[in-house]
Amino acid sequence: MTEVLAYIGLGSNLDNPESQLETAIEALTGLPQTRLQARSSLYRSAPMGPQDQPDYLNAVVQLSTGLEPEALLDKLQGIEQAQGRVRAQHWGPRTLDLDILLYGEDVVATERLKIPHPGIAERSFVLYPLAEINGQLEIPGLGGVRSLMEQCSDAGLSRLSVTAQSAG
Asked: To 10 degrees, what angle do helices 17-29 and 69-82 make?
């Protein structure tokens, strides 16, 4: 299979979130048929769900992968489990959340997986790091990442001092 560019959203608000994200990025570099191409800065954001939880740290990475979407999802869920992810509460606190945001230009709608990720257009903690990696990115069916950012409030979002890095 040819390789495709996939964008993965990372989030954590438990057990040293910065360390959780760095460990996850390291794990992503070890996936089969996959290379880390770029990573965004870290962003702090207020929780989307229940507000009685710590703020999140978020980032986005760009991978070049030969894994099919569902195989990639399986690998991401394995990394989440290895880092102590417990699915106790929808939008609740978590050690690690890894989401496939985009997989090339594919649109996927299965019981397990939806790509582009649902809600991508309303989430500043996804759009801003995505634009940092690739400001020309087009979200299938939704439009350009920059125009989506203009329609999305960045209230409660702050970029930390870590800068985007290209692994290529």
From this structure: 140
- pTM for the model stands at 0.91
Q: Which residues make beta-bridge pairs with 98?
A: 10
Catalytic residues: 85, 94, 97, 99
pLDDT tens, residue by residue, 122-134: 999 999 999 999 9
Report residue 159 as tokens: 């970029």
Delineate the domains of the chain, giving CATH numbers in brackets.
Answer: 4-166 (3.30.70.560)
- Cβ burial of 91 (10 Å; 0-12, 13-18, 19+) is exposed
* CA 17 – CA 11 distance, rounded (Å): 8
Instruction: Summarize pLDDT for 95-144 with one digit per residue, the tens.
Output: 899 999 999 999 999 999 999 999 999 999 999 999 999 999 999 999 99
Three-class DSSP labels, the chain: CCCEEEEEEEEECCCCHHHHHHHHHHHHHCCCCEEEEEECCCEEECCCCCCCCCCEEEEEEEEEECCCHHHHHHHHHHHHHHCCCCCCCCCCCCCCEEEEEEECCCCEECCCCEECCCCHHHCHHHHHHHHHHCCCCEECCCEEHHHHHHCCCCCCCEECCCCCEECC
